[in-house]
Structures are given as structure tokens and as C-alpha cells.
Amino acid sequence: MHVPDGFINAPVSVAAGAVAAAAVAVSLRGARRELDERTAPLAGLVAAFIFAVQMLNFPVAAGTSGHLLGGALAAILVGPFTGVLCVSVVLLMQGILFADGGLTALGVNITVMAVVTTVVAYAVFRGLVKLLPRKRRSITVSAFVAAVISVPAAAVAFTLIYAIGGTTDVPIGQVFTAMVGVHVLIGIGEAAITALTVGAVIAVRPDLVYGARGLTAPLKLRVNGELVDTPAAEPAPVAVAARSHRKVWLAGLATSLVLAGFVSFYASANPDGLEKVASDKGIDAKVEDHAAADSPLADYGVEGLTDSRISGGLAGVIGVGVTIVAGTGVFWAVRRRRTPETSPSETSSARLGKSV
């Protein structure tokens, strides 16, 4: 759903840029409360993983494909504020290096793909978690539903922006029906990827999933015929925690590199939902050439390499590397600025234990 230059007029693009900038500023402040010794090392990895999976377009209908947006996944794994930053970093890298998503439309893309998806998904997720039993399965079910809803919500947001500042005269009802219809299907794919990823992390390290914190009641012990709470576990030493996180980090990095460097070659070549709707309805009549069209990595290929498999795979690997470096740098800088007042509360350290 990367909006190119020329779909939205200049005044609305500027307004969307202001909204995106404000959202990023709020997220930078909010992320200070979310980024701790567990989430900070993983936030950059989440951004890189989203970049990699976005290269894997999957077919959803005749002649149409979809790809992960990532807002729901990022919000549940590392928190909603950090999630907005994760997707924003991905969009920035894609726009500058790979000519994917217009530079003048960067504000539109961040608003639609980062802000709307993350906010909607996390609101739905938290609401479901409060209603469902406190079990690991409830987390994955909530993640699935939240992801499904977040994608058509993004399609609605784009449609509203197009209604205000679209550069072509296409009936808004047609745009709305086409966008929401195809993105409901894409949302199912997004939900499957999100639920599988969240479920995989919960299976090995539930304490690393931000959205799963504080969901378990303390274990009970029977003492003299009465049930009492077990004492809280002492936090692991920093060195031990770092080693534990490193295994998850390395596994996630290896997965991202394989997906971007190898599996992406087998992705669907069909246009994604927005491209298909734009072509069918004429939204793309005034599309403009990308300012970074001459980038050596434009269109996810390395300039000068004639083998498409090697070119695309190497571009994907470079993208994962650049994204994880940029993301990690941003998140560690935010983490270092955290003050005692913005530290996570004691209750946020609760983990999913045997009781779930």
C-alpha cells in the first residue's frame, strides 16, 4: 500500500506530513516508557523483520497480491509507540533507498501504514485481551483479529485522504469499495503472519512480547491451608539477560536475511492492492516518477547485476542490514534518554508463566 508521488496533491501531502511528524514525535516520547532491557535490543530487529516480510507479496485474488503492513505485529511485540517508529523506519528506508513509496507521499504513507495500523490494531488487541481468558492462545487469537482489522482500516484512511486531496476525478464510492474489498483479503494474510510470528515468540520467550505482559495472576502456594501469592522472581542479571536476548536476536536476524535474500525471489509478481485499484480505477493517471528512481537499489535490485535472483536477494539483504542498523540506532538513542519517571512500571515485568 505504498502511495507513490502524484496520487495526492501537495497541500494534503504537506498536511499528512505534519500529522506524521506529530505522530512520530509523540511516539518518540512514548517509546521511552516502552523500551527497556527486553524491548530495546529487539525493536531494531522487528523493523528489519517487517522490511523482509514486506518483500514477500502473496496472491489474494486474480491478478492482485498483498504484503504485510506490520503495524499490528510491531505494536504487539514491542509496544504501540515503538511500533509506529518501527514501521516509520521501514518506510523511510524503502522510500530513500528502494524508490518504494513516494518521498512527497512519505507523510501519507507513515500516517496510513504506520500510525493507523498500529493504533487500530493495538486498541483492538487490548480490548480482546481483556475479554478473553488469560492464556497464550488468547494472545495469538487477539493478534490475528487485530491484524485483520488494521489492514482495511488503513485502506479506509487512504480513501479519506484521497477524497480530500486526490489528483484524479474518480468517484470516491468506487475507490472505497475497491480498496476495502481487496484489503480485507490482504488482512487475512497479514493476520496469519502476525499470529504465527507472535505465537512463535511467545512459545520460546513470552516475556519478550510487550502485549503479553501483566496478563497472568501470580502463582499460588498453599500454606497452612491458605493460598498465598508466590514471591516475585528476582530479575535476571544484566549479563544473563543479554545472553538470553542474543539467541532470540540472532534467530530473528537469520530468519529476516533468509526471507529477504532467498524467499523473496518466489514472491508474487502481481501488483499489490493499491496498485491494482489505482490501475483499474485510474487513480494513477497523474503518478510521478520517484525522486530516487536512479538509486542503485531501486525496485529492490542491485544496479549492474543481471541475474535477477542474485540482484533481488542482495538488495533484500542490504535492506535488512540498513534497516536494523538505522532502527537499532534510533531505539537505543531513545532508550538512553529515558528518565526514572518514564521507566516501565513494576507491573509491566509480569510474565506469562506456567499458568497460561
Automatic annotation (TrEMBL):
Key words of the record: Cell membrane, Membrane, Transmembrane, Transmembrane helix, Transport
GO cellular component: plasma membrane
Origin superkingdom: Bacteria
Domain PDGLE as annotated: residue spans: 246-336
Gene Ontology biological process: transition metal ion transport
Main location: membrane
Protein's cellular compartments: Cell membrane
Mode of membrane association: Multi-pass membrane protein
Keyword Membrane: yes
UniProt keyword Endoplasmic reticulum, yes or no: no
Protein name as it appears in the record: Cobalt ABC transporter permease
